[in-house]
Write a structure and sequence with these properties.
Pfam families: SUR7. This is SUR7 protein. Keywords: Membrane, Transmembrane, Transmembrane helix. This protein is of the alpha+beta class. It folds into 2 domains: about 250 residues, Butyryl-CoA Dehydrogenase, subunit A, domain 3, CATH 1.20.140; about 60 residues, no CATH class. The chain has 9 helices and 7 strands, in the order αβααβββααααβααββ. The chain has a 5-stranded antiparallel β-sheet. A hairpin with a 5-residue loop joins strand 3 and strand 4. Helix 1 packs antiparallel against helix 5. The longest helix has about 40 residues. The two termini are about 40 Å apart.
Length: about 325
């Protein structure tokens, strides 16, 4: 019964670890495994930037001399309508409504945003304006790329730590030593899972907040995906529960050692249970005055009668008050 209790005690954190790994894979690979899931969305369908606004953002002498009469739209900048941003890629919805996703890649944000910045400069330059994006905008692009890269790194660490935790969890039922090692790994996994979820959530919150701050003048719209947030933070909750229950397997639910004790006792008794030729099968302590003891004869397995031992009951001050016992070898 104790072994069953230990099994249940280990099974609970093992299942929680598995649930955390599944949820973090689903959230971390959004846009790859599940193309309908995303971290945050930027909708630029209604993008409309006035020349006055562009002139206040973009630096360039030529731009101040030449301003377009109409506002700039997403089509003018070569942009699609909707962008869904994920940890490993982004998906976009074209002007005709078709939706596609880029190939998953490490550090995709820095490469893609640098390319987009260059494209914007080329588009604006092609209109006859000698302009460059301000340092504040390029710094923001670099910062987003850096945060996105570290988000990917923390997801990788979380996946690996949860996988190692599951491996050692398979042996946690054997001893408290394995439970202790599993608990330490679970602690690292919990920190990594929390960091990945926190970075993904923080990045989305900053970008969405910045877009909404300019919504009234730019027409941009952005929102965070609650399904993504629920998925990754459930992973954090599962990881926290697993860590807590792995700690319980160290303090409580000790492995049953009674079977080992019985095995040692039985092993020690075997050397007394096997009798040799002419030796009784179950020797023990017997009184000397017992007719079956050394004062009487005994027969061998072949029926031969052996004489009684010459050793009788001791005389003296112990007679009657104490009678010694002998061990029949």
């Amino acid at each position: 019964m104790a072994n069953f209790g230990r099994f249940v005690c280990v099974l609970v954190p093992f299942c929680l670890t598995l649930a955390s790994l599944v949820t973090m894979l689903v959230g971390g690979l959004s846009g790859v495994l599940d193309k309908s899931l995303y971290n945050f969305r930027i909708n630029i369908t209604d993008l409309s930037i006035s020349p006055d606004m562009v002139s206040s953002i973009i630096s360039g002498d030529a731009f101040n001399k030449r301003q377009e009469a109409r506002n700039l739209t997403a089509a003018d900048l070569g942009l699609d309508n909707v962008y869904d941003v994920n940890p490993w890629n982004y998906c976009y919805t074209k002007q005709d409504g078709e939706r596609e996703c880029t190939r998953a890649a490490f550090n995709w944000a820095e490469v893609a945003l640098n390319s987009t910045t260059n494209d914007w400069n080329n588009i604006l330059t092609s209109t006859g304006m000698n302009v460059t994006l301000p340092q504040e905008m390029t710094d923001a692009v670099k910062a987003f790329g850096t945060v996105s890269r570290w988000t990917q790194i923390t997801f990788i660490i979380a996946w690996v730590a949860l996988g190692v935790e599951l491996f050692f969890g398979l042996f946690a039922n054997c001893s408290r030593a394995f439970s202790c090692v599993t608990f330490l790994i679970a602690l690292v996994a919990f920190i990594a899972v929390g960091a990945a979820a926190g970075l993904a959530t923080g990045t989305a919150a900053i970008v969405v907040g910045a877009v909404e701050a300019t919504q009234s003048v730019s027409g941009l719209d952005a929102n965070m995906n609650t399904r993504f947030l629920t998925t990754v933070w459930l992973g954090v909750l599962f990881a926290a529960g697993a860590t807590l229950f792995w700690m319980f397997t160290i303090c409580c639910c000790a492995p049953d050692r009674s079977s080992r004790s019985r095995s040692r006792d039985n092993a020690g008794g075997e050397k007394y249970a096997l009798g040799g030729l002419g030796v009784p099968a179950n020797p023990g302590y017997q009184r000397l005055s017992d007719p079956n003891g050394y004062n009487s004869g005994y027969s061998s397995a072949y029926g031969q009668q052996y004489p009684r031992s010459d050793y009788g009951a001791p005389q003296g001050q112990y007679g009657g008050a104490y009678e010694p016992y002998s061990h029949r070898a």
